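Minutes, structural biology subgroup

Action item carried over from last meeting: produce the structure token record for beta-ketoacyl-[acyl-carrier-protein] synthase III (Asparagus officinalis). EB confirmed the sequence was re-checked against the source entry. Recorded below for completeness.
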Amino acid sequence: MAAASIGHAYLGVSGSGFFSAEKNLKRVWIRCCSPSVDGASSSSLRNRRPRVIGMGSKLVGCGSAVPKLQISNDDLAKIVDTSDEWISVRTGIRNRRVITGNENVNALAVQAAKSALEMAEVEAENVDLIIQSSSTPDDLFGGAARIQKDLGCKNAWGFDITAACSGFIMGLITATRFIKGGGYQNILVIGAEALSRFVDFTDRGSCILFGDAAGAVLLQACSADEDGLLGFDLNSDGSGQRFLNAPIKKIEPEATSSTNGSPMFPPRKSAYSYIQMNGKEVFRFAVRSVPQTLQVSLEEAGLTSSNIDWLLLHQANQRIIDSVATRLGIPQEKIISNLANYGNTSSASVPLALDEAVRSGKVKAGDKIATAGFGAGLHWGSAILRWR
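Output recorded by EB:
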């Protein structure tokens, strides 16, 4: 597939992940003032801190949240023609979490974000921006603003990204650009999904794969010497959209008017279909494209795979993860994987796995992590990160 990279040439990043003119770049202070207008919303009157342009960014906190209900392979075998052995051998998945009752995407996102702020020891009022990646928000118009309210981030604004399994990586890179070019200090990046809402539980090819979860990280401005983004690469190819999608349902047109033959109005209520996937094509795409994008990011960072402490990929299929590791020459002991416990949680999978690895003591300060997201769109991308 022809890839349209939006990474390096246009952003002018060098091997260090900074602008090529970094050595000549002076810090520029920008003071933003809000107009005093009667009746203005509180958000337009919030206090603004001076902004420093040209800073690096580093990961200083992470968090995650999962629903209470766990669905095992054996549970699925009761409702669809499958078995624990059939699922685990082909995917590496044994369990997944599914939202029930009053649980929702927003609540999971808020819980994950709170944990990230606590680890970073940053108050909610010091957050400047919230970027949420979700293809399954509680509201069609997105959830970042609601998260901003529920967290109490009174000095922040937020927006949503819809890029499925690559969304978190895209949000992460976007956040670093706001820090570098916009002078932002603290940015929350959240991946939160409830894919179970769009799974056909009569289709054993797809219902075995997906679960619900949320993960978050806090990115913070830092000096160039501390920069935690060492290299990145982002790509899209819409010609592969047919292999993984959840389109609007095709509904038969209403009966035409008896007067002029025009369609009746108003139209029927819209709804999205179940997730539709060509597993073989998605697998082929992943094992080909992911090593390539990681190699581009490694080259930009001036590193080789032997310099990497951890490989953290989107948790889609253990065979994909193992294949990418083999192609890059990364040993099994350097792979971070929690796929067996949670399944494919789309944009939540990378921050969820990172949070568990950090809190367990596996990932330590200074460790270099090669991470990648890939999936619907088709979108794919990678980043070489340094933890803390």
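Discussion: Residues 56-237+277-387 form a domain with the Peroxisomal Thiolase; Chain A, domain 1 fold (CATH 3.40.47.10).
Next step: EB to file the record with the rest of the batch.
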